[in-house]
Amino acid sequence: MPPDAQAVLPQTAYSTSVGLAPGRGYRILVGTVIVLGLTAMLFAMLNGDLFRPIRHAIEQGNLGASLLKPSLIWIAMALLMLALRTVLWFSYRPFDAATHESAPTMTVVIPAYNEGAMVEQSIESVAAARYPSGRLEILVVDDGSTDDTWTYIQRAASRHLGLVTAVKLERNQGKRAALATGFRAARGDVLVTIDSDSVIDAGALLAMAGPFRDPRVGAVAGKVAAFNRDKGFIPRMLHVRYILSFDFLRSVQSTYRTVYCCPGALAGYRASVVRAVLESWLGQRFLGARCTYGEDRALTNFILDRGFDTVYQGSAVVHTLVPDTYTKLCKMYLRWERSYVREEIRFLRIVWKRPLVPMVLAIFEKLITNLRFPVAWTATATLAVIAISEPLALVRVLIAIGVGAGFYMLYYVYSERSMRFVHGILYAYFAFFTLWWIFPYAVLTVRSRSWMTR
Fold first, then answer.
1. Rounded distance between C-alpha atoms, residue 178 and residue 141, angstroms
2. Which of 124, 177, 196, 331 is most deeply packed, by most CB within 10 A?
3. 241-251 confidence digits (pLDDT tens)
């Protein structure tokens, strides 16, 4: 490889360990603390001590406390859900990676728009990945960029003749169109999508290919970490949140083979299934408006609708650039939440097609997850009123947020053995005070098509 190519190759060996003890004994210790903590919370709930102050206020006819009554029911159900998730999380195991002998033909599609130099790093990370020669092709689609993105794509393609194919769309058509261009040209039996602001670990492609040995698997989600996790307060918090979203939530979903979103940063698809749903996915509309963002979750739903399973491969790691400012963060979350609303409604129809156990688990999880919005808004409004006459109520809420976030960080510490969990606790407060408005606004503007970064 030429010297200039070496200059853009990222150091992507995934490691976030910062001074915590390694080894099986460490995991047993943290796992024991998680189990004991859950047991204590469930005992307190069943024994009545956890909610006694609020119940006493309800019995005394306190209106504010009475409005919190639905919150008690939801908290009880959420604790049961957390206990179930914990059991499933402990039982999750990554699929075996494909070997050089068994690896299927694979096409990696990288859509890019005004990405600049970062797209070259993305291409180089894929070209440097371990995968059998002759069974891998890389298609990079420039979605009508107006900056120097095409120059970087061409430079990378010239270094990897026969491996990297560069395609340039004359005008910007959106990420779905760019991906569809790559999907149509792809020759591989497995299609992998990687965002142009992301780089993969060397073993990621073989790991992504592994689950497709099972003919029931239609899509695979990779593990997403923050590429720029040391570049500011917000990236540090988001890195912890991403790890929890994947190594905890998607691990759980994978045990009943219903991962709800295979992320664009790193996702694998069975090519035959993608071709079967491609036109429907590309022309998707919601409330009369053409769907643009949320293409990854939408494609996952189309694949689930076809009766295939979607799983998580924790050994396939991608590092993606995350927002480093509050404005960029809000724009990202607005896109996510709008697509969340749209695809949750679609999933209500799809879930009944799943096998019995996945269907029941998915319905229970969706019920608890989506009830958190009205419950949280009702509780927050009520607590705000109560805090006027009882300022200590707010203090108790802030303490409860810290305790709850701290307990969730045990899952992160178990997986990562990292002191970065502190940023996860800070994120809980950050979200409480600065991100509360995102979901309501997303609901009101769900038909918006703006990507807000272009």
1. 6
2. 196
3. 999 888 899 99
